[in-house]
Amino acid sequence: MIESKVSRGIISTYFEKMERNLELDVAIVGGGPSGIVAAYYLAKAGLKVALFDRKLSPGGGMWGGAMMFNQIVVQQEALHIVEEFDINHEKYEDGLYVMDSVESTSALLYKAVHAGATIFNCYSVEDVIFKSNVVSGVVVNWTPVLREGLHVDPLNILARCVVDGTGHDSEMCRTVARKNGIQLATDTGAVIGERSLDVVAGEEEVVNGTKEIYPGLYVCGMAASAVSGTPRMGPIFGGMLLSGKKVADLIIKRLNGDA
Ligand code: 48F
Prior knowledge:
39% helix, 24% strand, alpha/beta, three-stranded antiparallel beta sheet, binds ligand 48F
């Protein structure tokens, strides 16, 4: 009967997908623009990558543009990434381009999955796997379980590298530092917290701050600003795209044995 075939099709293929992703090259926490771009380039390089986002619709802060005016701005330096994702863009002025935020976010998501990344939505990463002082995977649970405060244990997913792309809260970095008494690769050894807005410095520093912040743990996007104490930049997205590509490049180099 078609009714049970529909259910069986979903259940059996979903659990096959989940099982295929229990041991990853890269686990990305957070599906904002930087995390999704990272997923795309990592998958394109042939690595096994899954991205986990706690929301039903990954995309983070990109859907809404600024104040829900659904346009976003990117600068010339990031245009090659916009073109790689085949997103329509219109020259505005001074090396700045505007794009529709809904087209942009859906293009990033479509291309990342199409390149071979797996996206798990409604998954909250509540902790990392921490073995011999190396971040070695993620601990995941259903977002509704956590929202309801239900006492249900999570599942574990091993990964050779974990990326913190959780945005302004830099949740993975905070968790690793708080639970394990370790020093992160920041000026203070702790999560410093993002500074007030400065577009030029913010865009530059978010890319500079994209790095391995602790063995096995990389950071990108606003999480990188928050960890290193650099300024926010508002609704200009070039730095997010460049940060996502940079973290992918660093990991590809590492996992291919070059670094
Ligand atoms: O904040 P967010 O959009 O990430 P981003 O790549 O981009 C920042 C920009 O959108 C914008 C900006 C740029 O000018 O300032 O804010 O740094 O998205 C972060 C995503 O991470 C998810 C959250 O649902 C969001 O979609 N997330 C956060 N913590 C967790 C998580 C977690 N513990 N587990 C799973 N997903």
